[in-house]
């Protein structure tokens, strides 16, 4: 009898431990956290490249926002303790380092703030034309393990011509050169669009480089940041360009980050609006299972509507809010629609604690059982196409000649490498009835109950004897 009792207790303990088998090993978890902490605190070399073609002279003629933004970048990199070394160079057909004493950040800031057209002109770098595919390649390929920041007006210029044919060739050139770097060095890219006061000559590329004197207007320019994925993620974590007012005249951003199709922590929220339909949840809202889904049917129009909300933690997405909350950047299962993605501002709400966004979804057609997938894709934002132009006869603060071709080349390179892989995926089970898993008790607990009943039966039999 003692032997039976002993084995029964052992069985119960074994089953209990089986029920906890999904927990991570604490030592392994600590090792992972330490590795991540080391990666987060790693310092990188930062190389700043300023294109020095003649079309850039107008941005440094006087006290311009262009200079202020460059100084702000340097200040944020240094003050956030991101850089190991910091260097500044002009770039065109060649790279021309600007010799400052030991790359002192304060000296570099002073140098930028006092830039003049003559500084860009009197260097060993040629500055007649700017063939952007070559400039972009040099800025990445020279030091691919560093964080490389290219500042350019991104106006396509080539002695071969400015027709659509040559723009298409340039796009394919960018696509090819960047493809190699993404595959070899896991390069991530961020593109920021700004505008600045411009005093100088503009070269009309759609009219064979004819010059126009611009006595003072706003013109767009771009900051293109490239580097290994970890370094760019670190930069985006520390420096919030889109959310910081000190980055004067910030306009737009484009993120080409390394996708990993991760599944962010999420939970389904209870719906209290009966005009949006009814549903029940499985035992745990984090299971992302909806049962007994019933749409609201409008008594007058007879239209069907089913709405539910999901709270998610999207903090790992290193992009600004405009990118995360733009529903056009997402794909969702047929018959469902993303109504909105909203940042959670009430941090005191216990229901949404640990989550930072609420995704509202709807459907006009429910199947008996379906899996709803929400996928954040890497898409070329609309502003890229709106910025590009093939006729720059009247230069303004919005348009850049050939810009959309350049960005299409960059975007296609990432699509080639990652083949449409998602930034993240959220999967939700929606059932008109009860799901198979929602009403069942997990197997280890069933075995534990059996063991307890068996043990009790043995005790009862013993007492009867």
Could you characterize the architecture of this molecule?
By secondary structure, this protein is an alpha+beta fold. It folds into three domains: 2-38, no CATH class; 45-258 and 397-418, no CATH class; 266-377, no CATH class. The protein is built from twelve helices and 19 strands. It has helices at 2-19, 26-41, 65-79, 105-113, 117-121, 132-141, 164-185, 229-238, 321-324, 382-387, 403-418, 443-464, and strands at 44-51, 83-91, 95-97, 147-152, 187-204, 210-228, 250-256, 266-269, 278-281, 289-294, 296-297, 304-312, 330-332, 336-343, 357-363, 369-376, 388-389, 400-401, 424-431. The strands form four sheets. The chain has a seven-stranded mixed β-sheet with strand order 3-2-1-4-6-5-7, sandwiched between helices. Strand 2 (83-91) and strand 3 (95-97) form a beta hairpin. The longest helix has 22 residues, at 164-185. The radius of gyration is 29 Å and the shape is elongated. The N and C termini lie close together (12 Å).
Strand line-up across the major sheet: 3-2-1-4-6-5-7
| Proportion of residues in β-strands | 25-35%
Query: How many structurally independent domains?
Result: 3
Give the structural class.
Answer: alpha+beta
How many strands in all?
A: 19
Q: Tell me the span between the first and last alpha carbons.
A: 12 Å
Mean model confidence by pLDDT: 84
Any idea what the shape is?
A: elongated
Mind summarizing the main beta sheet? 7 strands, mixed
- Model regions low in confidence, pLDDT < 50 over at least 5 residues: 7-24, 28-36, 437-445
Helix amount, in percent?
25-40%
Radius of gyration (CA) equals: 29 Å
Continuous helix count: 12
């Amino acid at each position: 009898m003692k032997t039976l009792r002993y084995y029964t207790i052992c069985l119960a303990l074994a089953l209990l431990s089986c029920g906890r088998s999904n927990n991570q090993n604490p030592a392994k978890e600590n090792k992972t956290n330490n590795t991540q902490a080391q990666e987060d605190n790693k310092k990188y070399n930062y190389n700043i490249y300023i294109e020095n073609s003649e079309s850039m002279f107008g941005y440094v003629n006087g006290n311009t926002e262009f200079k202020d933004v460059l100084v702000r970048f340097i200040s944020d990199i240094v003050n956030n303790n991101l850089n190991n070394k910091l260097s500044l160079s002009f770039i065109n057909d060649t790279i021309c380092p600007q010799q400052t004493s030991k790359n002192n950040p304060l000296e570099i800031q002073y140098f930028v703030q006092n830039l003049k057209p003559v500084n860009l002109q009197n260097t060993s770098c040629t500055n007649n034309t700017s063939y952007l595919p070559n400039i972009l390649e040099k800025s990445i390929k020279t030091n691919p393990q560093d964080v490389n920041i290219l500042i350019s007006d991104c106006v396509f210029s080539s002695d071969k011509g400015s027709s659509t044919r040559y723009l298409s060739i340039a796009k394919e050139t960018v696509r090819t050169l960047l493809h190699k770097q993404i595959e070899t060095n896991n390069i991530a890219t961020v593109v920021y669009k700004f505008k600045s006061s411009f005093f100088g000559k503009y070269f009309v590329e759609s009219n064979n480089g004819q010059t126009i004197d611009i006595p003072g207007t706003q013109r767009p320019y771009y900051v293109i940041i490239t580097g290994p994925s970890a370094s760019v993620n670190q930069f985006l974590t520390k420096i919030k360009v889109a959310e910081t007012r000190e980055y004067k005249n910030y306009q737009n951003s484009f993120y080409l980050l390394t996708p990993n199709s991760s599944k962010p922590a999420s939970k389904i929220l209870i719906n209290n609006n009966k005009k949006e339909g009814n549903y029940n949840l499985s035992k745990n809202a984090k299971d992302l299972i909806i049962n007994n889904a019933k749409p609201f049917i409008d008594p007058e129009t007879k239209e069907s509507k089913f709405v539910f909300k999901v709270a998610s933690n999207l903090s790992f997405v290193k992009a600004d809010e405009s990118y995360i909350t733009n529903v056009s950047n997402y794909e969702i299962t047929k018959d469902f629609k993303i109504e909105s993605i909203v940042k959670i501002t009430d941090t005191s709400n216990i229901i949404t604690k640990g989550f930072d966004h609420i995704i509202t979804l709807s459907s006009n057609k429910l199947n008996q059982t379906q899996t709803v997938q929400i996928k954040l894709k890497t898409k070329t934002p609309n502003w890229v196409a709106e910025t590009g132009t093939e006729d720059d006869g009247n230069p303004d603060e919005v348009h850049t000649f050939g810009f959309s071709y350049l960005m299409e080349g960059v975007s296609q390179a990432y699509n080639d490498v990652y083949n449409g892989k998602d930034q993240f995926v959220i999967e939700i089970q929606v059932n008109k009835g009860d799901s198979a898993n929602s009403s069942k008790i997990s197997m280890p607990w069933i075995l534990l109950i059996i063991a307890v009943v068996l043990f009790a039966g043995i005790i009862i039999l013993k007492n009867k004897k």
